[in-house]
Design a protein that fits this description.
By secondary structure, this protein is of the alpha+beta class. It is about 40% helix and about 20% strand. The protein folds into two domains: about 15-125; about 130-355, Phosphatase 2c, domain 1. Strand 7 and strand 8 form a beta hairpin.
Length: about 350
């Protein structure tokens, strides 16, 4: 982030402390060494390194200040035998001017990068905004980690919306990952949010998403677009959840100290044009007080450790689910355990936890 400072003396970016201190330490160190060395040993030439170091840690004003101190220290009369010649002064002046120009260019670049990143983050958050703590009577928590560095949205997504038929949620993994998949993610999210309001059944929502991908693949010239998706519905005034899977990994029901995989029958992935012809099967699960549903994308279970073994989510989940701290803490515990097991994720990772409230 940019930190311009009222006087311009502060760094234009939050550089590490050692980087900001380095030109000052070099200036003080060379000056002290020069004052304590015998006559005839001249170290003043090394002060020419101070302005370039300042240019990479400070803005143009800070660079001017440090360069002025350096120049003054060299030109001040003293009792030593050495005094800089005119050629030395010209060389140092060129170095100072060059350093100020570098500091100014770097400051402009930093400002541009911050602006671009701010706009990009706003656009990505518009596609996939953070989940609220609750949607209607359903408490929820989500966690997303893109495989591509510096991005907030990729090929996985989730959403939770309330409509006339209850609270509905989706978690999906589209073809590809990173920024290349954002267009497909945006299209599916738009279709899901409309279907929540219009479609009376969960298989009908799946058919709408399937049709969206089929139409987009034909109109955009894509040979094929597909996605796996898990759809969940919490009907009003019932302690049940309905689940539909379109080629997506099965979710877990967390009850007490147990984690049971829900036996939802998988249907073909979205985008093959089959959802409208053969509606996917729907699983109905009775919920007890305190039950939670954990849904995830295959970036979790396909992560490997150094020996090539897949991350054993089913084995580790019961212990992770007993941690205190609420639903958000559960998603963080799974993420942290995954990173300890496999290191940095090589695929997009999404986690969604849902629980029926008391309403």
């Amino acid at each position: 982030m940019v930190d311009e400072g009222a006087s311009g003396l502060l760094p234009v970016a939050r550089r590490p402390l050692w980087q900001r201190a380095l030109p000052v330490v070099v200036l003080a160190g060379i000056t002290a060494a020069q004052l304590t060395t015998p006559n005839g040993v001249e170290l003043g030439y090394f002060l020419a390194a101070v302005p370039p170091l300042a240019a990479f840690a400070y803005g143009p004003v800070g660079t001017v200040v440090l360069a002025t101190v350096t120049f003054t220290g060299i030109l001040l009369p003293h009792t030593r035998d050495w005094y800089p010649e005119s050629g030395d002064i010209v060389t140092l002046a060129v170095v100072v001017v060059f350093s100020i120009v570098v500091a100014w260019v770097r400051q402009r670049r930093d400002h541009q990068l911050v602006t671009v990143r701010t706009v990009a983050e706003a656009a990505q958050l518009a596609v996939l905004p953070p989940l609220p703590d609750a949607v209607g009577p359903v408490r929820c928590a989500g966690l997303y980690q893109a495989a591509q560095r510096g991005t907030l949205v990729g090929g996985d997504f989730y959403d939770v919306r309330e409509g006339p038929h209850g609270v509905r949620a989706v978690i999906a993994d589209v073809q590809g990952h990173g920024l290349a998949a954002v267009g497909t993610v945006a299209a599916l999210l738009g279709a899901f949010r409309e279907a929540v309001l219009d479609e009376p059944t969960l298989p009908g929502v799946a058919a709408r998403l399937d049709r969206r991908l089929v139409v987009d693949a034909g109109s955009d010239g894509h040979g094929e677009l597909f996605a796996t998706a898990l759809l969940l519905e919490f009907p009003p005034h019932e302690r049940v959840v309905r689940v539909v899977s379109c080629g997506h990994p099965r979710p877990f029901l967390l009850r007490g100290r147990t984690a049971a995989e829900l036996a939802v029958a998988p249907a073909p992935p979205l985008g093959l044009g089959l959802a409208g012809l053969a509606p996917p099967g729907e699983l109905r699960v009775e919920l007890a007080e305190g039950d939670r549903i954990l849904a995830y994308t295959d970036g979790v279970t396909e992560a490997r450790d150094g020996a090539g073994d897949f991350y054993p989510l089913a084995e580790r989940l019961p212990a992770l689910a007993t941690h205190d701290g609420g639903m958000t803490r559960l998603t963080e515990a799974v993420r942290d355990d995954l990173l300890r097991y496999a290191g940095r994720a090589k695929d997009d990772v999404a986690l969604l936890v849902l629980a029926r409230g008391t309403g």
